[in-house]
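Handout, section 4.2: multi-component inputs.
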Amino acid sequence: MKNTYLDLIQQTFYFPQDGFEVKNNYLHFNGIDLKALIEEYGTPMRLTYLPKISENIQKAKKWFADAIEKNNYPGEYFYCYCTKSSHFAHVLKEALSNDIHLETSSAFDIDIIEKCYLHKLITKDTLIVCNGFKSKPYTQRISKLANLDFNIIPVLDNKEELEEYERTIIYECDLGIRIAAEEQPTFHLYTSRLGIRYSEIKQFYIDKIQSNPKFKLKMLHFFINSGIRDTIYYWNELTKSLKVYCELKKICPALDSFNIGGGWPHKNSLGFEYDYAYMASEILNKVKSTCEEEGVECPNIFTEFGSFTVAESGAFIFQVLAEKLQNDSERWYMIDNSLMTTMPDSWGINSRFILLPVNKWGNGVHRANVGGLSCDQMDYYNSEANTNEVYLPVINNAEPLYIGFFHTGAYQESISGYGGTKHCLIPSPQHILVDKDENGNIITEVFAEQQKVQSMLHILGYDKMRDNGE
Ligand SMILES: Cc1ncc(COP(=O)(O)O)c(C=O)c1O
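Output:
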């Protein structure tokens, strides 16, 4: 039994693996030499590796194309990117280079759609699926795009939403309806607050849409928060939604799309295992067999993968500033940023990310708690997805230890905010974009410098401060 950090990883996981390899005791991420990147830009650093976004979209398209072939499935597959997972222009640009469609969640998302159209990243043929509980500014923007002949599908979250479109949409428009799924058994509420109850959808369609000349019901939407998993709960909810689809289809010929939402998992541990091809095939198999039993045509399948599209493109690199032993067993590695504010999911919903050192892979290992710079008791990270503890290399010489949290590209900035003011005024890290040129060489650019003190003082009103007594 050997006991370097590299030995530990090799004994615990299949390693090296896709995206991660070690050369001369330094970690490379998707072929990026992280040591060189740190030498060039320093830490703390947020990095986005853009090619991973296209890679994942293409993988998912292939899984569904193979599943269509395997099941002799008569419908088509449409990949939508759920913009809320990461709204950055560079993310949308990369994602849209893969002939995909988009899903929106709020009013300002529609302004992003307009920008994408102005810059020719999308056309009016791109499908825009609009989800969420809609405020007036959101329905107004949706109606504007519908009236400009965009291929927009507002997905009704509730019955009243239709009244807004009645007043503001001029031409014919396709609609979707979101089913309010039952929450997973472990959750403390029964039914999702989003969508319309299973039992009410058909009557609502008959009362309000069937004979309405302006609207056609095209899509039924179903999303469950725990994601697309091979569990009884998932298959149950899918079957219930398919039954609603079939019932509706019998009286609504325009209905031809079934949207299974997001929740396609991404790799959050080196031990992550998920049979994507199997799941895609099983879903299509289930849809097809249910439709055949009910004697209705199979729908086109839509997905709105957010995390899967972007999570694996992101990473944070931090320097360990100091090691502190607070008692006989609690060792702290204090990093140069805050976990709580920079990776809020690690604190707020206890999400786990892949944590690996960048250097010192030849050193011995011990347990450590990673501590953030804010004063909050909860600003720490000390358990991995499968192990409930964190092991890191022993720090033994002048070279600082650098650690990386990987696959952090989804939701972190939209939850913590990008820039703005932060707990204990810990600044947002610099943001480096990493891409490949036409010859496959890695190229980098600074997207944003580390947040400056002036930006926070401005937000906090210090720019407008008057002398005492004035
Ligand atoms: C309606 C809808 N679609 C898609 C998604 C994306 O989910 P994920 O990022 O898990 O793929 C969400 C996430 O909350 C959602 O609410």
